[in-house]
């Protein structure tokens, strides 16, 4: 599966927000392989906001640009709830802005090891708070 050691992520509820169906399925498959449960996925900001505000979520993997709209309102809602966030973007760290420049990010295209590293770091930072 992956060469990176992971903690027991069985049952970890991860919100996936991604507007490209093939990328969304790839991220979902990676997370399922790690034992996570998928929340969503959401392909548009309104659906993502609904889930971010009301669903039981342990972490989130968010595309920075969702159908031409910035993800920041969804990130704000999740941050207010203390949910760890990993951003995905073709721009890497330069795709982040404002309060999110120090968040964990994986640059598209990415492999499962990249996602594991970023999600592990995000979960560890959250647990330390």
TrEMBL record:
GO terms for biological process: phosphorelay signal transduction system. It comes from the Bacteria. PROSITE patterns: RESPONSE_REGULATORY. The keyword Transferase does not apply. Residues 13-123 form the Response regulatory domain. Keywords: Phosphoprotein. The modification 4-aspartylphosphate is found at residue 63. This is Response regulator.
């Amino acid at each position: 599966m992956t060469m990176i050691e992971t903690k027991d992520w069985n049952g970890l509820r991860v919100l996936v927000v991604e507007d490209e169906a093939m990328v969304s399925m790839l991220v979902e498959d990676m997370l399922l392989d790690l034992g996570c449960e998928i929340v969503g996925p959401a392909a548009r900001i309104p659906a993502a906001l609904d889930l971010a505000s009301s669903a039981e979520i342990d972490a989130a993997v968010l595309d920075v640009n969702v159908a031409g709209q910035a993800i920041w309102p969804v990130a704000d809602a999740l941050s207010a709830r203390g949910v760890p966030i990993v951003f995905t973007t073709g721009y890497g760290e330069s795709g982040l802005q404002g309060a999110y420049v120090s968040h964990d990010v994986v640059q598209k295209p990415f492999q499962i090891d990249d996602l594991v590293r970023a999600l592990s770091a995000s979960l560890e930072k959250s647990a330390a708070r």
